[in-house]
Write a structure and sequence with these properties.
The protein is α/β, with parallel strands linked by helices and about 475 residues long. It has helices at about 15-20, 25-45, 50-70, 70-85, 95-105, 120-125, 125-130, 140-150, 165-175, 185-205, 230-235, 255-270, 305-310, 325, 330-335, 345-355, 360, 375, 385-395, 415-430, 430-445, 470-480, and strands at about 85-90, 110-115, 135-140, 205-210, 215, 220-225, 240-245, 250, 275-280, 295-300. The radius of gyration is 26 Å and the shape is elongated.
Length: about 475
C-alpha cells in the first residue's frame, strides 16, 4: 500500500477548508456532476410519491421504536449473539474499540487485515492505530482503497472517492500498484484494483467490517454492499471482527426490510444492492467456509449523549444513506474533506458535535443555509434543520449555565465580541425609549454606515438604515389623513 502520510482536516479549520475547496474548480465540477447524477437516480428510484412517504413514515416509526427500547435491545442483541457463538465487546471510546480489535488480532499473531467498508472504523482511526502496532489494514471497498492509497479520508459516506477524477485514479494506480500501465479506462481501472486486492483475502489473518443493521431478535449482523468485497472479508479469513455504533440495533428481522429498501434507493437509486449479507454465527461443524471466530464491537463514542436528550435522540435514527449530502447546497460545493470529520454534510453537522464535542465542531451547525432539503429527503425523517438550530443554541449557551443534559463543549461558539453585541442589543430593544433613540440616531447618521459589513457584504449589498423610522412614517401618514 501507499506510504503517503494520511492527510487529516481538523474540523476547527472548517472555514479555511471551505474557502480552499470553493477555489478548487476541478473539485467543484466533479462534485456537481456526481451530485446531479445521484439526485436524479434517487428521484427515479421513488416514482410513486405516496409509496415514498408511506415508506418514510414506516422507517421513521421503526427507528424511533428501536431507539426507545435501545438499552433493552442491546442486552437482547448481546444475549442472542453470544448464544449463536458470536463474541460481543463494548467500547465507550474510539481508543477502547481500537485496543479491543488490536488485542483480538494480536492473540492470533495477525499481521494483515482486510477491511470491508466501515465508517465507524474511520471514526476510530482504526487503520492508523493498527499500522502503529505492526498490523497492515487494507481497505477492500474500491472507493476506500483509492482514498487509502491517496493518503486521504473518505469525502462521502457512501462513495468515498467521489471527489476523484478517473485521471487522478489512473495516476494513483500506475504509481502505487506494481507493473500497472497508465489507463483512464474505468472498466480497466476497476479490474486492476480487484486483481490487486484478490490475493489479499487468502493471505489475511483477519477480516474487518461494519454493520448496517444488528437484529436483536435473531442475533444477526446485516451488511449491505455492491462489490462482493464485504462477503470476502467476512467469510475467507478465519476471524471476522465487526464494528458498529450502538444505535444500529433493530428489534426484529422484519424491521430490516423497509429500512433496506429506503437505504439502497436513497443512497444510489438502486432498488436493491448486489449483496445483502446476514451473519448469525461463526462456521459450524460440517460447513466448508466462513470464519471460525466472529466478534462484534459496539461503540458508544458520544452516542449516549445524543440519546439522553429526547430531541437530539432523533440524530441516531440515521441509516447512513448519504442522501442529505447529495442534496445539500453547501456539501455539493465544498465536498466532505472541508468538514474535517468522519461524517460530513448535514448528518455530520448534527452527529459530529456528539462524537467530538462542540469545542471541536462549533462551526459545523452553522455550515447550513437551513433550506430544508436535507430534512425533505431523509428516508427516516430526521428533522435535520431543527437539530442544527438546537446545536447552534447549545454552542452559544453560557458554559456555566445548568441544563438537564449538557453537551460536551457547551458554549464553545460563544465569543466575547458576540456577548457584548447581544448585551448592547438587549439594552437597545429592552426599553421603548432606548429603541426610539437608537432608531432616530441610525436614520440621522445613515451616511456613516460602513460599506464593508463582515459576514454580510460578502454576498449582499450593504445594509443601510432608512432615512425615516417607521414611527416617523406612521406619524406623517396620520398627519396627512387628518
Amino acid at each position: 500500500m501507499s506510504q503517503h502520510t494520511v492527510t487529516l482536516y481538523p474540523s476547527r479549520q472548517f472555514k479555511d477548508n471551505a474557502r480552499s475547496a470553493l477555489g478548487d474548480t476541478e473539485l467543484r465540477h466533479s462534485l456537481r456532476t456526481a451530485m446531479d447524477f445521484l439526485m436524479a437516480k434517487r428521484l427515479s428510484a421513488f416514482p410513486d410519491e405516496n409509496e415514498l412517504e408511506t415508506l418514510r413514515t414506516l422507517g421513521e416509526t421503526i427507528r424511533q421504536r428501536c431507539l426507545a427500547k435501545l438499552p433493552t435491545l442491546l442486552e437482547q442483541l448481546e444475549a442472542k449473539l453470544t448464544a449463536n457463538g458470536i463474541q460481543v465487546h463494548w467500547a465507550e471510546t474510539p481508543a477502547e474499540a481500537n485496543q479491543i480489535i488490536q488485542g483480538l488480532i494480536d492473540r492470533r499473531n495477525g499481521k494483515l487485515a482486510v477491511k470491508g467498508k466501515s465508517m465507524v472504523s474511520e471514526e476510530t482511526e482504526l487503520n492508523h492505530h493498527l499500522e502503529a502496532h505492526g498490523v497492515t489494514a487494507v481497505e477492500s471497498d474500491m472507493g476506500e482503497y483509492i482514498v487509502q492509497m491517496a493518503g486521504e479520508k473518505p469525502t462521502h459516506i457512501i462513495m468515498p472517492a467521489i471527489h476523484k477524477t478517473k485521471a487522478q485514479i489512473a495516476k494513483l494506480f500506475s504509481e502505487n500498484i506494481p507493473d500497472t500501465p497508465y489507463t483512464e479506462d474505468v472498466d480497466e481501472l476497476i479490474q486492476i484494483g480487484r486483481k490487486a486486492l484478490r490475493h489479499l483475502y487468502m493471505k489475511a489473518d483477519v477480516g474487518i467490517s461494519g454493520v448496517n443493521f444488528a437484529v436483536a431478535e435473531t442475533g444477526t449482523l446485516c451488511l449491505v454492499e455492491n462489490e462482493g468485497n464485504g462477503r470476502m472479508c467476512t467469510t475467507v479469513p478465519d476471524m471476522h471482527i465487526a464494528i458498529t455504533g450502538i444505535e444500529k440495533v433493530v428489534e426484529k428481522l422484519s424491521d430490516v426490510v423497509p429500512l433496506y429498501s429506503l437505504l439502497t434507493r436513497s443512497a444510489i437509486g438502486q432498488p436493491i444492492t448486489t449483496y445483502f449479507n446476514m451473519i448469525s454465527s461463526p462456521r459450524k461443524e460440517g460447513e466448508l467456509d466462513g470464519p471460525r471466530e466472529v466478534h462484534l464491537v459496539l461503540l458508544d463514542n458520544g452516542r449516549s449523549q445524543a440519546y439522553a436528550d429526547t430531541q437530539l435522540r432523533k440524530t441516531l435514527q440515521c441509516i447512513r444513506c448519504g442522501a442529505c449530502m447529495n442534496h445539500c447546497p453547501v456539501y455539493t460545493r465544498i465536498g466532505g474533506h472541508a468538514y474535517g470529520t468522519t461524517y460530513p454534510g448535514p448528518i455530520g453537522e448534527i452527529i459530529s458535535p456528539h462524537l467530538l464535542g462542540l469545542e471541536n465542531t462549533s462551526d459545523l451547525p452553522t455550515a447550513s443555509s437551513l433550506c430544508g432539503a436535507c430534512g425533505e429527503v431523509c428516508p427516516v425523517r430526521i428533522p435535520i434543520p431543527e437539530m442544527l438550530m438546537r446545536l447552534r443554541e447549545e454552542s452559544q449557551r453560557p458554559a456555566n449555565e445548568h441544563v438537564a443534559h449538557p453537551l460536551r463543549g457547551q458554549g464553545a461558539g460563544r465569543t466575547g465580541k458576540e456577548s457584548i453585541a447581544w448585551r448592547v442589543w438587549k439594552g437597545v430593544v429592552g426599553k421603548a425609549s432606548h429603541y426610539k433613540l437608537f432608531g432616530w440616531t441610525a436614520s440621522h447618521l445613515r451616511a456613516l454606515t460602513p460599506v464593508n459589513q463582515p459576514g454580510w457584504t460578502q454576498n449582499h449589498v450593504p445594509m443601510k438604515p432608512a432615512a425615516k423610522t417607521l414611527h416617523q412614517l406612521i406619524k406623517e401618514r396620520e398627519a396627512k389623513r387628518s
